[in-house]
Amino acid sequence: MKTHLIVQGTDIPTRDLKDLAKLAGADAIEAISATAFRLAAANAGARAEVATFCESKALDHGWVPADRRIGDFGLLVMDMDSTLITIECIDEIADMQGLKPQVSAITEAAMRGEIDFAESLRRRVALLEGLDKTTLQRVYDERLQLSPGAETLLAAARAAGIRTLLVSGGFTFFTERLKARLGLDYTAANTLETADGKLSGRVLGDIVDAQGKADWLARVRDELGMDAHQVVAIGDGANDLKMLAQAGVSIAYHAKPVVRGQASYALNRVGLEGVIPLLGGVRPC
Question: Among 25, 37, 72, 92, which residue's beta carbon has the most beta carbons within 10 A?
Answer without folding.
Answer: 37
